[in-house]
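Bug: token stream looks shifted between consecutive jobs. Job 1:
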Amino acid sequence: MRCTSPWPGGGYHQPVAKWKDAIRRALYPAYEARMVRALPRDRLPKHIGVMLDGNRRWAKAVGADTAHGHRAGAANIEPLLGWCEEVGIEVVTLWLLSTDNLNRPAAELEPLLDIIEEAVLSLADQRRWRVHPVGALDLLPQRTAARLKEAQELTRDVDGMLVNIAVGYGGRREIADAVRSILLEEAGVGTTMEELAAKISVEQIGEHLYTKGQPDPDLVIRTSGEQRLGGFLLWQSARSEFYFCEALWPDFRRVDFIRAIRAYADRERRFGQ
């Protein structure tokens, strides 16, 4: 017996696809919850770095302008932080804007900075997480730098997860800033160049990074399928594990995050040995 479709245009593919999508949405929360329960609590990362990549490609794919992609990406930040809390992450570093990105045309850069400012202040207003800007704030427009500092001040006493907001951030610039800070500090107490050369150490440089006093990232996640660091946490990630996800950042889901955590937990960390 041949079936005929009651749907305009014939075929069952449209309603079937909708039903499959509805079933998937209904079942995924239970599936994800089971995945979370199965995570080995003694093998989870404490500090995660996330490269939020793919906003522009996502916008192009949906036929929207670049600013729409950045807004969609910004809207996914709060859910990510909630997922991190769920599994006990203590520190999250989010790379929102690199030093290279500051060279983008003003027509793209200015709306992006507005979106970043709004997103960061929204996180701060919740007083749920401690916001800590990391990057060369002196390279940013004065208003953007002021908003980032405002978010930090608003959340200074919050007893919650530490969220590093990397804006105007570049790994090479961070290391150069750390060395510059050491030189100025030592010059201020009369240390000669010879004395400094004899005593400078890895530990001393680490104490002058933007993330000083924090643990190095255990896991670095990059979305969008790109498999490179691009200058993210160059010094701190020397012994980190890396996870590259095909999903563009606005499409990055809780299940993608859990899979990244599970992949990390399944690895044997050698710490260079």
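Job 2, same session, no restart:
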Amino acid sequence: MFSILKPFLFNLDPETAHDLAIKSLKLNILPGKLFDVEDEQMLCVELLGKKFPNPIGLAAGFDKSAEVYNPLLKLGFGFVEVGTATPLKQFGNAKPRIFRLEDDSALINRLGFNNDGMDLIKNRIKSEKKKGILGINIGPNKNTKNQKNDFCLGLKNFFDIADYITINISSPNTEGLRDFHDKEKLKNLLFALNKIKKEKKTNIPLLLKISPDIKDNYIEEIIDVATKNNISALILANTTNINRENLISEKKNEKGGLSGEPLQEVSNNMIKKFYRKLKGKIPIIGVGGINSGKSAYEKIISGASLLQLYTGFVYKGPSLVKNVKRELIEILKSEGIKNISDVVGKNAH
């Protein structure tokens, strides 16, 4: 059905098409059985104190204000991450702010954390009980005087309703945000967040989402701070505002974060570098250019224990998750592997 609708959707402005997708997901009419695959137990992953039915998650940015996470889980995702949620509601940057690079199977966005604000998002999640694993991605408001404090507010607000919380220090569309990759600044932020965890007597996993644009010398510093400050997993990586030289679409120079297929190799290489240095201390969630079972498998053998996608979902539609799962199972069977976790990092060395 998506293949019939796709030309119509792709004639619309990307943001209008996205709003339409959210509205249709709210109808929640597709039966979950439609997205089941045989032998899915081969994809089961135990991590963060949870049992993930499969490693394929939806990245933050699609369901920014937690409107459709349950219908999304029904499409076969192993987990869904909503957000980025900021303390106050914000409109984000001026439109147009999403661009399709169809010739590159990519998107560029400069949305700027548009969302309904954490109070409304929290009430929504409380009233619409989650039917699977739900992560919440938190960030600061654009005009805040204190970005660190905004992260603290996010944790205080969501610690009791999320399965994990992602600290998003990596979006290229909020000024000053990526400065948190600096060792001292990051240490300071994580210290404040861990203090709140202690006060609230919560053991909620904190994940850290990293930019793909960092220089290699930052890797060891980030690992050092993350391992010493109770980070449960690293998400590698967010969108990039470089890596444009091989793109062919005319919109390639739009300002914002690039996602999709061009990020595949960038992200795989980054995962391998982190995996080698982490030596199993912290797991990795791999993001960037996943649009098939093969590209998902490459992320896992590079060192990712779980995966997230977004742009592939925009281009390939709701059946993508089912197809990725089916292809992954075929690969595992052909290699005589019983469970997906057995091949994590197989190709990282």
